[in-house]
């Protein structure tokens, strides 16, 4: 696994564990809501991940972008599908999202290098 991917996953897992260890009911419910929102429903998981990716890009959250790129990759989306979603995010978000677009491309390339 590439460094950028393994470092992100390790940090995310470690900090999620630390957060959840505090046993805060509100935080646990938010985590649960997030997990359940991205399960199969009227919209399939691939569509939901692309929606999450677009929203995360427009909001300029690099950790969220990485999370949704990983989930999109795991769901079998290809680069063309992801890039099309990122193009919509860039259109909606404007040029201020370009630095995040660069990081998204770097992360996607790292995910694909694992194949």
Describe the structure.
The protein has helices at residues 3-21, 25-37, 45-58, 62-74, 79-93, 98-112. By secondary structure, the protein is an all-alpha fold. Helix 3 (45-58) packs antiparallel against helix 4 (62-74), helix 3 (45-58) runs parallel beside helix 5 (79-93) and helix 5 (79-93) runs antiparallel to helix 6. It starts with a helix and ends with a helix. The model has no long low-confidence stretch (mean pLDDT 96).
CATH class: Mainly Alpha
Oligomer: single chain
Q: Roughly what is the average pLDDT, rounded to an integer?
A: 96
Outline: globular
Could you say what the CATH architecture is?
Up-down Bundle
**What profile does the largest beta sheet have?**
none
Provide a concise account of the structure shown.
This protein has helices at 3-21, 25-37, 45-58, 62-74, 79-93, 98-112.
Sum up the structure in keywords.
mainly alpha; 115 residues; 77% helix; 6 helices; AhpD-like
List the helices and strands and how they pair.
Blueprint: H1 3-21, H2 25-37, H3 45-58, H4 62-74, H5 79-93, H6 98-112
């Amino acid at each position: 696994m590439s460094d950028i991917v393994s470092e992100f996953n390790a940090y995310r897992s470690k900090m999620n564990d630390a957060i959840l260890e505090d046993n805060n009911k509100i935080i646990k419910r938010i985590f649960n809501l997030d997990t359940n929102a991205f399960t199969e429903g009227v919209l399939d998981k691939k569509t939901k991940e692309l929606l999450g990716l677009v929203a995360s890009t427009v909001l300029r959250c690099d950790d969220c972008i990485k999370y949704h790129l990983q989930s999109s990759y795991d769901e079998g989306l290809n680069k063309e599908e992801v890039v099309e979603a990122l193009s919509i995010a860039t259109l909606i978000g404007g040029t201020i999202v370009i630095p995040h677009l660069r990081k998204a491309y770097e992360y996607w390339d790292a995910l694909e290098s694992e194949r």
